[in-house]
Design goal:
There is one protein chain. By secondary structure, the chain is an all-alpha fold. The chain contains 18 helices and no strands. It folds into 2 domains: 2-170 and 233-431, MFS general substrate transporter like domains (Growth Hormone, Chain: A); 180-232. Helix 5 runs antiparallel to helix 9, helix 10 runs antiparallel to helix 11 (205-226) and helix 15 (308-326) packs antiparallel against helix 16. The longest helix has 32 residues, at 400-431. The radius of gyration is 20 Å and the shape is globular.
Amino acid sequence: MSFTATLNQTLMVTALPQMVSAMHVGLNLAQWLTTGYVLVLGIMTPVSALLYEKFNNRPLFMGLTFIFTCGSLLGALSTSFWVILAARLIQAAAGGIIVTLTQILLMSIYPLEQRGSIMGYVGLTISAAPAIGPTLSGIIINYLDWHALFSLTLPITILILIAAWFIMPNYSTPQSVHIDLISLFESLVGLGLLLASFSFISTSPLIGVILFVTGALITWLFVKRQFHLQMPFLNLRLLGNHSFRAMTLFIMLVFGIMMGTETLLPLFTENVLHISALNAGLMMLPGAALTAICAPFVGRLYDRYGIRWLVISGIGIVLLSCFPFFFFSDRTGSLWITLCYAVRMFGISLLVTPATTEAFKSVSPQNLNHATALNNSLRQISGSFFNTIMIMVASLPASFVTGFHLAIGVTFILALLLLLIEFYYQERSVHA
């Protein structure tokens, strides 16, 4: 179920040009089908740690799967853009909790010395599922209409629900916890307005600035509130831990690069090369397959050799992969694009599992669920932010090719920042 929820982050990516045409909306609005999903996924993630403490994991998992199924059904039956967006947000609200709940359960069950291997399989969800989304979407759109992106998930989630009823055990013991609804409201409104401001800034600068300032103020109130709550909605005090802070920031930037690339490339191939949604999705398949294959092996390599050389190699590959992207044009061959994307995704696969595992290395067992929620939440929110920013950057010039090159430049800068964070982390670790 965790894989299905994460897969849906990018399932709409290849379908965006069709949604723009079918719903008669602009790209900046249509991209909220992806951006809104990832944002709500991130905002709802902190609730997972509190719900894990408040309820038994079995009924909690089943209830969330049922909500996700309802969202899929709503989307499958709808013809209105706003109802479709609502369906996506319902899916994300349940999916954000499911993804983190699964991760908390796995890290609670398995010992520390096996955590790298276990996180390798978690990496299948974190990086491989979003990578597969555009390919699967392209295949579905080619043979069926966009409603199938919702309806085809229904039998899967129903089967998961039935399986959970019969075979899923309880691992958690309910405790008395309080969920701060004011914090939930502040995070949803504050971050939502911040993201919306980027969509408006190029077309209505005044509205964009007003939304940004209002969103920033509400987000600041949210952050301030967390340090005054006895049981915070998002335990930001965990960022005082050096390993957790550095590696969480690292993962946020990696996810920004990954989400940005996975969103931009189908738009480039469909709008510039005029390739069908099916072929655009298939061009991304080797990269997705490579990510899925590498994730478990990278986890084992981390257990044996640690983080340093895996991460340095991954950053180097991501940086080098930017250069061919800078020269993509309407005459670039599809095989070359496929190869360049696969190389980039291989580099990203070397980063996700080691950084995620390293982030939790020095987190105490009693804080593990809150650390997982915070890490996942910030990762999803950053993916949503960078996705919006890169769409905005790509849309600024009159030529989408030029805009695409500028957006890839953003990913190059993010990769350089990854290198700085890694050097800073290793330097601090040596002197700690």
